[in-house]
Amino acid sequence: MNASASPDGFCEPAYGDRSLxxxxxxxxxxxxxxxxxVPRGLDLPGAASYVVFLIDGLGANLLLRNAEAAPYLSSLLxxxxxxxxxxxxxxxxxxxxxxxGLVPGGHGLVGFTTRVPGTEDLLNALVWDADxxxxxxxxxQTTFSKLKLDGVRVSVVNKREFNGSGLTMAAHxxxxxxxxxxxxxxxAAVVAASSARPSLTYVYDGDLDWTGHRWxxxxxxxxxxxxxxxxxxxxxxxALPNDRRLLIVADHGMVDVPxxxxxxxxxxxxxxxxxxxxxxxxxxxxxxxxxGAAPDVADAWRAILGDQAEVLTxxxxxxxGWFGRVDPSVLPRIGDVVVASxxxxxxxxxxxxxxxxxxxxxxxxxxxxxxxxxxxxx
Length: 378
Hints:
Layout: H1 23-30, E1 49-55, H2 60-65, H3 71-75, E2 81-84, H4 91-100, H5 104-107, E3 113-115, E4 122-124, H6 134-137, H7 143-149, E5 153-158, H8 166-172, E6 176-179, H9 183-193, E7 199-205, H10 207-215, H11 220-239, E8 245-250, E9 255-256, E10 262-264, E11 275-281, E12 284-289, H12 294-305, E13 309-313, H13 314-320, E14 337-341, E15 346-348, E16 361-362, H14 368-371, E17 372-377
Parallel strand pairs: 1-7, 1-8, 5-6, 5-7, 10-15
Antiparallel strand pairs: 2-17, 3-4, 8-17, 9-16, 11-12, 12-14, 13-14
């Protein structure tokens, strides 16, 4: 199944159908429980125990192109559903959609970095800021907590360092947290947690994404890491009894950005005029503008970037439905102007984010390579 394309050639998020926010409601239905409307495009086989394994950065197109390096994962592609990330196609947004069942405009994590309303501060949703209460930033009950209240054992198996982090509290609170740091203990923890009936066990691996950022998805390093992830997934399946279902998903894909595809705000004076703060990330920028300057900023960025990016005002991006229905409290977190890169373009802001120079693989925008994700059932 293919995601729908928008008039500008981007991949539209399949909210309510087969997006990441639809995964846990579909799993709940397969467990015999209800979290409201069942997603239209994600019908999962019934079972008393489900394991959801999220592989960070494993886009559907990347898996298809590199099927020989991942024989187990690719063996599940036949007849599989292809889902979509939300917008932007970035980890903090995706993990929160998975854990809450909400669109980004509902849960409020609408970017990797976004302005804290009423301040000049940016919230980095992965690192988090101690001054920002994740329970206030994302006040909605998670799907994990709803299922737990309904009698389902819900467990999160992830690195010890993420226990109690801002993102974990925003996205996955309500579940029993099992801290692990090695593949062996990760698999053992999943087997133990999923032994309960009924149960949902969520497990995360971020190594493929890290490798893609550092070396690029066209590198031998990334390919070798895909081989390792494939073996881990197969080993997990072999360790699980046959009556437990394994659902393998991703949070986004990735594209490599060559030097000639990089535009740096710090080196382009025309991109700075009227911009008070640059947020988001290199493939999906939130621009917070001087009061009244947003229309001129949008015009200037369109003139300079041309067909390298789609440049929209806040009202325009909301009208496109990229964030789904946007809660009023979330509106000021969205940039006055939003910039989504096309092709292999990225808009760096090395004054504020110097590490962006070191990244080869990037994500965040709405191309098929970033948005399409596998939904693999075994």
